[in-house]
Structures are given as C-alpha cells and as structure tokens.
Specification:
The complex is a heterodimer of chains A (361) and B (358). Chain A is α/β, with parallel strands linked by helices and 361 residues long. Chain A has helices at 2-23, 46-61, 77-88, 102-111, 136-150, 165-181, 198-210, 224-232, 260-272, 300-315, 342-346, and strands spanning 31-36, 65-70, 93-96, 116-120, 129-134, 155-160, 186-191, 215-218, 235-240, 251-257, 279-282, 289-291, 325-326, 332-334. Chain A is globular. A six-stranded parallel sheet of chain A has the order 2-1-3-4-5-11, with helices on both faces. A six-stranded mixed sheet of chain A has the order 7-6-8-9-10-12, sandwiched between helices. A two-stranded antiparallel ribbon of chain A has the order 13-14. The termini of chain A are far apart. In chain A, 41% of the residues lie in helices and 19% in strands. Chain B is mainly alpha-helical. Chain B has two domains: 1-39 and 333-358, no CATH class; 59-324, ABC transporter involved in vitamin B12 uptake, BtuC (Orthogonal Bundle). Chain B contains 14 helices and two strands; from the N terminus they run E-H-H-H-H-H-H-H-H-H-H-H-H-H-H-E. Chain B has helices at residues 12-36, 41-49, 51-54, 58-84, 92-110, 118-144, 148-168, 204-222, 224-234, 236-241, 246-270, 284-294, 299-323, 327-349, and strands at 2-6, 350-354. In chain B, helix 4 (58-84) runs antiparallel to helix 11 (246-270) and helix 13 (299-323) runs antiparallel to helix 14 (327-349). The radius of gyration of chain B is 22 Å and the shape is globular. The relative contact order of chain B is 0.21. The chains are: A alpha/beta (361), B mainly alpha (358). Chain A binds chain B through residues 11-19, 21, 40, 68, 70-72, 74-78, 80-82, 84-86, 88-89, 99-100, 103, 107, 123, 162-165, 168, 193, 346-349, 360-361, and chain B through 40, 43, 46-47, 51, 55-57, 60, 64, 67-68, 164, 168-169, 177-181, 184, 186, 268, 271-275, 277-280, 282, 314, 317-318, 320-324, 326-327. Chain B: Its main location: membrane. Chain B: Pfam families: BPD_transp_2. Chain B: It is found in: Cell membrane. Chain B: Keywords: Cell membrane, Membrane, Transmembrane, Transmembrane helix.
C-alpha cells in the first residue's frame, strides 16, 4: 500500500515518466491507455466523439484503467514526439485518432514493440499496430434517403472535406439512396479542403443555398453549416456528433461516430493478452455508426422508411453499394445482385453515374 | 510617483537582463495561472523547464529540443538581418512552405533513383524556392514602393494554397490509396535528412542553423554589409550618405531570410516531418519572429531564444501529459513570455525615477 501511495504521489510530482516504467513491473497497476487528438475535445465533432469513447473506457474499467490524452497535436514531427511521450510514460495501448498520424504511429511503434498502437482511418498495419475505421457510408445511405424525401427542389448540397475514399464513399452512398426515393435528386458538391473551419464551411453552405439547395449534408466537423441552414430555413444533418442543439430544425437527423464499444473491446483485449493487429471497419451493425434521432419535422412514413433501411444495413441484409451500379462515365461497376468489396471501397476514387462534376485530382 | 526618463543610450545591462527577467516573470505569472486552474504551479513549471532537460527520459527529449529549435533558429537568423535594417519580412512561413515544395519536388521527381547528388540538389532547390518567394515582396518594394509587410504576409496564404493544390495533386503519393500527402521521404534513403549521429536530433538542418548563427555573427561584426544593415536600420539618412543603396539592402535582406526559411522547410520535410501534406507547416515562420525578438536580433541571443522556445513547446507537452494542463494554458504561458519581454523593453531605453517632478 505504501509503495502504491508513493507511486501515486510521485506521479503527481511530475516524475511519472520514470516511475511509469518501473511501475510496470507491478501487476496491480492500472493499464495506461493514451490518446492523441488532432483537435480539441470541445470541437463538438470528430475529437469530441473520440473523447467520449475515452470517457466510456474510464467508466467501464474504473480503477483498472487510467487514460491520458494530448490534444491539438499537429501532424508530422510533433505527432511523433507526442506519441513517443505517451509510450515513454508507461502507456501500453495508444490510440492515434487522425489519418495524418499514420507514419508517425508506425515509426514510434517500431521503437516500442511491447506497446500496442491503434491508428484511426489509416491503412498501414504492423505487428503492434492495428487500424480502425467506421463504415460512415452506411449512415450516409440512411440520411441520403431522408434527404431525398425531404428535398422539394431536388437539390441536395454536400460540403465535402478532402477528395479521399472515405469522403467519396459518403457522397456516392448519399446520392444513390436519395435518387432511389427521389428521381429528381441532384447532388451539389463543394470541396472545402478542411476538416474544421467554421468560416469556410459557412461560405460553402451559403453558396449551396443560393444555388437552390434545400437539404445540406456535410463531411466537416463544425456546426457552422447548421447555423447557415437555420438562417435559410433549409434542412441539415448532424455530423460526427449529434448536434442536437439544432433539433428539430434544421437538424433533422445525424450520423454519430460511436467509438466507445471499440475502445472498450480493444482495452479488454490488451488486459486479457488477446490483442491482435486487426484492420477493423465496423458500421451500423456493431453500433459504431449511429443514426441520431430523426426529428418531428420528418413525416412518420419517411422516418419508418429510414429506420427500416438502417435495420436492413445493420443486419447485413442490404449493402449500400449493391448492383446494378455504373460509374460516372457510364461504365459498368457492379452487376445486378453484386455488392462492392472492401478493397474497391477503401480505394474509391470515382463518382457513381448521375453525379455531376469532377472529383478534384 | 514613478517617472520615466529616456536613457541617452540603451542600457547594455538591461538589454541582456530583460530576457532573463521576462522568463522569471513568466514563471511567476504562469504559475499563478496554473494555480488558478487547480494545478500545482511548482510542478507545472518544473515539467516545462526541468523535465525535458534533466527528467527521467531526458535522453529522448534533449535531441528533440534540437529538432524543434533548428528551424526556428535558422529562420529567425534570416529575419533578424532584415529587422535590423528595418526590412520587415513577415512571410517566412510562406518561404518555408515554398522551400519545402521546391526541394521536395526535386526528390519526388527523382524517386526511386538513388544518388549522393540528390540531397544537395534538394537543399539548393529548397533555398532557391524560399529565395524566389521572398524576392516577390522585395522587387515590388523596390519597383513600386509597396509595403513588404503586407506583401510578404499575403504571400503566405498564396503559398498555403499552392501547397494544398500540390499535396492533393502532382505530389500525391501514387501508392497512397488516394489519400493526400506525398511519399514519405524518410523511406527514401538518398533524400532522407537523417540524424548525422543516430538519436541525437542533429540533422543537417540543425548543423546549418548553427552555421547560420556563426555566419550572421561574423557578418554583423566584421563585414561591411553588417555595418550597412545596422546603419540603415538606425539612421536611414546617414546610411544614404555612407553610400548604402537601400534597394540593394532590401533585396539582400529579404533574399537571405527567404533562402534560410526555404532551407528550414526542406530540411524539415526531408527529415523529422518526412511528408509534404497540406498541413505540414506548423507555424515555424511566425514563431521565428518571436524568437528573433526574444533573442534581441543578436545571433547568439537567437540561438538561446530558439532553444528556450523549443523547451516551452516540449515541456508544455509534458505538462499536458503529466498534469493534464490544457493546451490553451500552455499557449497563454508562451504568450506571456513575449508580453513580458516587450513590456520590459522599456527598461532598456528608459530609466525609472521614483519621486521628483510630476
């Protein structure tokens, strides 16, 4: 007991780094789990949801686990140092929660073979590096359906961040399902080249509204789009987090990233000694992608339709990318009854037939 | 009553004493801030200033100080020459980006050929990239009398947009599954700006930074150009009588600072950073302005100021980790440092008299 107290006080005394290593020898010590954030938990979007996942880990494991995070970590050399700091201070499981931390995570992982690393949205694994991502396109199918039903002009606006596969999947999935319920549906895409920039996002929203768009979707993290939608009286969907402050209108539903189940599962795996370097890609079925409450603005039959689609995707009965589907240039992509495979999806660099405009290269 | 009296000449004692006093006052005010956040101020200050240097894992963090300070010192040395001559290059961040882009492009164009000539070629291209970007405000100032502060600053945003276009387009890693960002130059042996001695943080960029300190010292103390720079800044009219061509001086000051910022950029992406991404630049070009003034525009002062700034960054991260201090508190702490330094400048040029006439 005295030794534990000594450890605790010394840790507070700022010498946690050295003692963390020595303390690892004690079996009863809590497992230290570290998180690297690209933004701040107060962003109300991406980092907020990761932080909710971290808090869920703390709540689930109680004293058995101790979590730490470093926020606002720039990508590049600074990321490598921040991850190394977590590794040096006795963390045995480290989540790096942005794509840009990929090479830094792998570099540090090489130096600390006994520590497990988890990199969000990346594609490079190693014996001690797993990757994890969520099938956001499944959620896009559901809100695409709502958007198609709710749009009067048929013009749906999409504020896109970067032309990477994850974002393109979302645009395609939303368009396919909007078009299914509304043959007039058109997708207007604006690329803002940022994940979080309220001013740019608001500008893009204004431009889309001026073009006659009456339902907005976004693949960026701020609530600025919501504010613009509210001013203009058009509909929008919460992104990454629920954004309920804008319910029931303009926010009529949302796609929520729910990392808590995955973080708890992986922490348990490290405690049990069963951790493996997987490439996890979970969706609605595993509760990693959650459709936020559909507000009363949406008619009951549309809500039921959306919920039914959600359940069919969740159970695996339906794949959002099911044939027949053509690529934008008219060439065949998926035949009748065929579903897209993960390899194609994770490298997706084309629009499906019917979407106007070009993906910036 | 307090009264300020202008000193006939700036006090040598205080021009060196104020940085030290500013650091002490920052520690006190910062400590109060940390205490208000419910953290032990002594531990927080210790985490920031002591742990990276002498803490349990100092062997890892000391080299990191060099990695962080290298580009800051290199850029600040260039800026200080201009600032001494009253040529205000605020756009080092843009020159840093353009240096990285030009040098990085050379490496990516040559990939995967291995040659010992590649690295020098990248470095030269990096310096030229920064130099050309700084020549734009220089030529506009010489030809049309535009304000170099505005032009150089605005060109930062132009550079950022060029960076974004290239990172998503021509420089994108063809094996990157469509994700933005170039190939990682750390995995390209001929292009990698590796540690000269493993795990010391001492890469070519840091060596160049030290050489720049020495070069600037000699230039300012032993060379006619150094004299001209000083005179032009302190007494422009006198400088004209002494035969200094102000246009040449503008071009030289902006050119040197641009080239050094470009060098910092290519050393960073070829070394610690590794990749050209749309957001690889983390503000070294702007932070270097603080470093230049913190170092009194003196080469040795800049060397120390760069290391101090790096220490607050790395120590700040440690305080975030061990004490859960929010990043904003660390940034406020860094801001205080500059605030106290500028406020205490008063002591260099003025004497405080107590009592006397009102």
């Amino acid at each position: 007991m005295k030794r534990r107290q000594f450890l605790a006080t010394s840790a507070i005394a700022g010498t946690a780094l050295g003692l963390g290593l020595a303390g690892a020898a004690l079996a009863q010590d809590p497992l230290k789990v570290g998180f690297i954030y690209v933004g701040v938990p107060g962003d109300g979007g991406w980092t907020y949801q990761h932080d909710q996942g971290r808090l869920a880990v703390e709540e689930h494991f109680g004293d058995a686990v101790e979590t730490t995070f470093i926020e606002n970590v720039p990508e590049g050399a600074d990321a490598e140092r921040a991850i190394t700091q977590l590794a040096l201070s006795g963390h045995k499981l480290i989540f790096t929660t942005s794509f840009g931390f990929m090479d830094a995570t792998l570099n540090v992982a090489q130096k600390f073979p006994d520590i497990k690393f988890e990199h969000a949205t990346g594609y490079k694994q190693a014996p001690n590096v797993a990757t994890y991502d969520a099938r956001f396109y499944e959620g896009r199918a559901v809100i695409g359906t709502i958007a198609g039903r709710m749009s009067k002009t048929g013009k749906i606006g999409y504020i896109a961040s970067f032309p990477i596969p994850e974002v393109i999947q979302g645009i395609n999935s939303a368009y396919i399902h909007a078009k299914k319920v509304n043959p007039d549906a058109q997708m207007k895409v604006v690329w803002v080249y940022t994940w979080f920039d309220p001013a740019k996002e608001a500008d893009a929203a204004s431009a889309l509204i001026a073009e006659g768009v009456d339902v907005l979707m976004q693949h960026t993290d701020s609530t600025a789009v919501m504010a613009k939608a509210q001013e203009a009286g058009v509909y929008a969907f919460g992104q990454a987090s629920d954004m309920t402050a804008y319910a029931p209108k303009p926010r009529i539903s949302s796609i929520i990233d729910n990392w808590a189940p995955y973080y708890i599962e992986r922490t348990q795996a490290v405690i049990d000694g069963t951790w493996e370097p997987l490439a996890s890609w979970k969706g609605i079925g595993d509760g990693e992608v959650v459709i936020g409450e559909i507000s009363d603005e949406v008619p009951a039959e549309v809500r039921d339709e959306a919920m039914a689609l959600r359940d069919k995707i969740g159970s695996g009965e339906y794949h959002p990318f099911s044939g027949p589907l053509n690529k934008q240039d008219g060439s065949a992509w998926l035949a009748e009854g065929e579903a897209a495979d993960d390899a194609t999806l994770s490298g997706m660099n084309f629009y499906v037939e019917g979407i106007e405009g070009e993906i910036p290269q | 009553m307090f009264r300020l009296e202008k000193r006939p000449t700036p006090s040598t004692f205080w021009s060196w004493g104020t940085p030290v006093l500013a650091v002490i006052l920052t520690m006190i005010a910062g400590g109060m801030l940390f205490a208000m956040l419910g953290k032990d101020p002594v531990l927080a200050i210790k985490a920031i200033f002591w742990e990276p240097l002498f803490g349990a894992n100092a062997s890892y963090f000391r080299p990191q100080l060099l990695v962080k300070a290298g580009p800051l010192i290199l850029i600040a040395i260039g800026l200080s020459l201009g600032f001494r001559a009253a040529v205000w290059n605020i756009g080092a961040e843009g020159q840093y980006i353009m240096g990285a882009l030009c040098g990085g492009s050379v490496a990516l164009a040559a990939y995967p050929a291995e040659s010992f000539l590649l690295f020098p070629a990248m470095i030269i291209a990096g310096a030229i990239g920064g130099f050309i970007w700084a020549m734009i405000p220089a030529l506009l100032k010489i030809r049309f009398g535009t304000n170099e502060i505005l032009v150089s600053l605005m060109l930062v945003y132009v550079a950022e947009n060029i960076l974004s276009t290239l990172a998503f387009g021509p420089l994108k890693n063809p094996e990157g599954f469509g994700f933005p960002g170039s190939r990682n130059l750390q995995q390209y042996p001929s292009a990698h700006n590796a540690d000269l001695i493993a795990n010391t943080g001492l890469h070519w960029g840091v060596v160049t930074a030290f050489l720049a300190v020495i070069g600037a010292y000699i230039l300012l103390n032993r060379h006619i150009l150094g004299f001209q720079i000083s005179v032009a800044g302190q007494a422009p009219r006198a400088a004209r009588f002494a035969g200094v061509n102000p246009n040449t001086l503008v071009a030289i000051c902006l050119g040197i600072s641009g080239a050094l910022a470009g060098l910092a950029g290519i050393f960073e992406v070829a070394g610690p950073g590794g990749q050209i991404t749309d957001s690889f630049n983390v503000g070294y070009g702007f932070t270097a302005i603080i470093v230049a003034f913190l170092g009194r525009l003196h080469p040795v002062g800049i060397l120390l100021a760069g290391l101090l700034m790096a220490l607050t960054y790395i120590g700040g991260e440690m305080a975030q980790l061990s004490l859960s201090l929010p990043l904003a508190a660390i940034q406020a702490f860094q801001g205080m440092l500059l605030f106290f330094l500028l406020a205490l400048d008063l002591l260099t040029n003025f004497r405080i008299r107590i009592g006397g006439l009102i």
